Amino acid sequence: MRLFVVISFLLLYSLPIMAMELIQNTQGREHLSLDGDWHIIVDPYENGFYDHRYRESANGYFRNAKPKALSDLIEYDFSASPKITVPGDWNSQKEKLFFYEGTVWYYKNFTVEKIKEKRYVLHFGAVNYSAIVYVNGEKVGQHEGGFTPFQFDVSDNLKSGKNFVVVKVDNTRARDNIPTVNTDWWNYGGLTRSVKLLALDRQYLSDYSLQLSNDDNREIVGWVKVTNASLTHEVVTLKVPELGINKTITLGEAGYTTFKFSAQPTLWSPENPKLYNVEFVYNGTTLADKIGFRHIRVEGENVFLNDKSIYFRGISLHEEAPNREGRAWSEYDARISLTRAKALGANFIRLAHYPHNENIIRMADELGLMVWSEIPVYWTIQFENPQVYTKAEQQLSEMISRDKNRASVVLWSVANETPNHQDRYDFLKKLISKARELDNSRLITAASDTQAVEGRLRKIDDPLAGLVDVIGINTYCGWYSDKPKTCPSLRWQSDYNKPVIISEFGAGAKHGLHGDTDERWTEEYQADVYKYNLAMIDKMPFVRGTTPWILVDFRSPRRPLPAIQDYWNRKGLLSETGEKKLAWFVLHDYYAAKAQMDSP
To answer: Which of 386, 546, 552, 439 is nearest to 211 (CA)?
Structure first.
């Protein structure tokens, strides 16, 4: 009996406390920012989590600011430990941690005057890769996935006055993670996006969706959800002053209801990124947002935005901070990156290969850039593993939940460069079905590099192409195969009667390195690759856009070549410090001509 009790206790202790459902529009709510300086302890052996027999410590050694009894052996002290800035990654802030992968403990104290009638939610924009969170020494939950938000209700853990939070962060790569062990970007670890303590009413509007109807440009549809609603007939008021809208929405069971009403909004587009001030009012609390209205659809090999045929003049982008090293996260970072894309002539960005921070999505709304948003189902993940599928679906759901109200997002991508076999097909088919279930107002895509090669013919024959709305093709003619001048002689075939985006092409070049057009790593060689690939693309009638690889050079552990790469992927049109390479001008002129052709 005693053994049973002990085992039951250990099982109960080890059960994960998962994050609660995401709250929409956290920056529009009353909150205390926990950004700024945090103390850290680097713990490569995880001695703060496991005992000497590698069992999870029941005392949660590092979860407290200090051991309770001063007479105890004290071998750590957060208050005397180094500081790091949050949001941010440890790799770029601490030289000794540049290559570090493992556990780092974060600690911050804060003061809050707790109000009995409030609910308090601790919200993380993202933590790479896994997080276990403690408030005042008590475990409040854990989360896995490095690029999507999560949160925990900490109302019962807080006290009025001084409090502290400890986060165990671990960016160790693993085969059953998403992404898996091998990627072509830097594995930045840490609290990489903002941390907030939300102060909410006991009953609060937790989530909502508002968009143009798929079937009617003169109808707006949506839903609202209130958490802890006390009555089924409570109301939410929706206001869009510029459209003269002031609607009362009566809640149904569990505080949820759908609605629709007639309206004639000016439609959001890259040429006119119109956003409306929207207010939801519930129980005396107003939640404000800015939302644009548009619809997108495919018809044969064409894509229509607001019933107008469009060409995606795109560029790919990693979440690399402009003008400094490290992970991007701020509104300032977003504005610089997207202003660069606009200067190139882009109307579209591919945010590779994971969900980027919310600031860049909202900035795309504001500046008029359509967005391809992707989860890191990348290369050779364990498609046969059901637990890995669960992780992929979680990341997909969190991405869609956060960004479903952003007009700029027109494509959800479920994968990049995955090998063609049955387990992968079944995995992605299920994931695509889930994406459509969560959001039927956007197009689904995935980037593929598994085209059949028959002499000079490249045939799109990946069965995944039959599942998506828009086919993404990664091809590196002139860099990983062939010579640049031979690219226009390639013939491409697609039997799917669907639009195609050339989601990657390009070549590496170090800014300032010049030479002949046949000399690799020179700006001239890269420019030639662009010149001849664009000529090839112009001969592909089913292509409706491109997102060349990539806007800016970015950190990658796969790229150590001394004096050329030095752990930078050099395929950027801009150097890591923002200088333009020759290929920038090739693509700029091409897009200028495309824009002229597409203008009315």
So the answer is: 439
Q: Is residue 8 part of a domain?
A: no
Confidence category of residue 15, pLDDT binned at 50, 70, 90: very low
Number of domains observed in the structure of the chain: 3
Question: Is there a contact between 548 and 526 (Cβ–Cβ < 8 Å)?
Answer: no
Residue 443, strand partner residues: 411
Residues making up the chain, counted from first to last: 600
In sequence order, the 6+-apart residues with CB closer than 8 A to the CB of 116 are none
Domain termination residue (choose one: 246, 266, 294): 294
Average of pLDDT values for 128-148? 97
Residues forming a β-bridge with 240: 245
Alpha-carbon distances of 467 from 113, 214, 425, 445, 446, rounded to whole Å: 52, 20, 9, 9, 10
Residue 1's pLDDT band (boundaries 50, 70, 90)?
Answer: very low
**524: its two tokens:** 């001239």
Instruction: Report the candidate in 108, 119, 114 with the shortest Cα–Cα distance to residue 198.
Output: 119
| Residue with the two structure tokens 């930078």 | 568
- Residue 246's CATH number: 2.60.40.10
Residue with tokens 């800015």: 290
Q: Are 283 and 316 in contact (CB under 8 A)?
A: no
Tell whether 266 and 399 lie within a shared domain: no
Threshold 0.90, pTM exceeds: yes
Query: CATH number, domain at 27?
Result: 2.60.120.260
Query: Mapped to the 3 state alphabet, what secondary structure does 170-225 carry?
Result: ECCCCCCCCCCCCCCCCCCCECCCCEEEEEEECCEEEEEEEEECCCCCCEEEEEEE
Specify whether 106 is located in the same domain as 95: yes
Residue 7 domain flag: no
List the domain range (segments joined by +) for residue 389: 297-598
